[in-house]
Amino acid sequence: MSGNPAAWLHQALDATPRLISPGDTVKLALIRRPDEIYPASVFLEIWEIGGAQPLNSHSDSIETFWFLRGSGQATSDGKVFPVSAGCFLLLPAGSQHRIVNNSAAKLYAITTMHPDHGFAGLVEAGTPAGYDDEDLDVIRGKLGS
Predict the structure, then answer these.
(1) Predicted confidence (pLDDT) per residue in 70-85, tens digit
(2) Total Cβ atoms within 10 A of residue 140
């Protein structure tokens, strides 16, 4: 590709939140798919109260989480980290990790997977889950507590 790539803008409200598997307690809304300009995917990730991902690992991808609202606990390779609004978490490629919302409110984060290695497709194949009023407040910048 020659020259500078064009700027890119997307409305988060246009992204459909999905559950990767039925019964999941974490919704992911794909904000940006990877492409030739940027090989990472970007998501809004929403943990329900008591929600958690299964223990997982991405052998060749670095995953980041910028927490917008709520609090919880991240575990990576046996180390435990409290997470809350304003925290930024980087998980190295190959780490065995999990994030649990152990609070009385939802937990929200902007998540990136770099490089994506098919994760965006996995999310897109999931079940549409929809946004509720609290989700819409976070998307619109009403971050609250």
Answers:
(1) 999 999 999 999 999 9
(2) 10
**Alpha-helix residue ranges (DSSP H) falling in the chain:** 119-124, 133-139
Domain of 96 in residue numbering reads as: 24-132
Answer yes or no: is 16 within a domain.
Answer: no
pTM above the 0.90 mark?
yes
Q: How far apart are CA 8 and CA 98, in angstroms?
A: 31
Helix, strand, coil % (nearest 5) of the chain? 10, 40, 50
Q: Which of 118, 111, 100 is nearest to 51 (CA)?
A: 100
| Structural contact between residues 83 and 65, judged by C-beta atoms closer than 8 angstroms | yes
Domains held by the chain: number? 1
Q: What are phi and psi of 72, to 5 degrees?
A: -175, -155
- Residue 115 reports pLDDT greater than 80: yes
